[in-house]
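Protein modeling request. Please complete all fields; requests missing the sequence field cannot be processed.
Requester role: graduate student
Desired output: 3D structure, token encoding
Chains: 1
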Amino acid sequence: MVFPFTVPSITLLVVFRACALYRNNPYVVTFFSCSWLVLVVACVTVPVASTAVNIGITEYCTPQVRSLVSFGIIYVPIHETLIFLATSWAFLQSSYTDTNVTNGLRVMVLGKFLPEFSKSILHDGQAYYL
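Delivered output (130 residues):
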């Protein structure tokens, strides 16, 4: 029953980070803000649309989910992936190296060519995503 509270509140912190990185682009900020609101609605549907069914004549039960619940469960990792890619892209754009495939992978995966603070934020986002 804590799913509708914990997932949106934790995700809100990551949305704040993405909005801070793209503060000069109102379209990106609006997209991630609206996307977070959709995530809140999707997370609320999980406990509301879920029920439990007895397993035969035993006292045990198994969850029975409706198709509406699958949207709430699937949307969370999609939203997190979009945020992760957007923050990695913002760090790639602010790195102090030429943008090519090799250097881009070094920046986005290892944090090379980034200031220490940006590198720590990137690694924190990677740890959260994993």
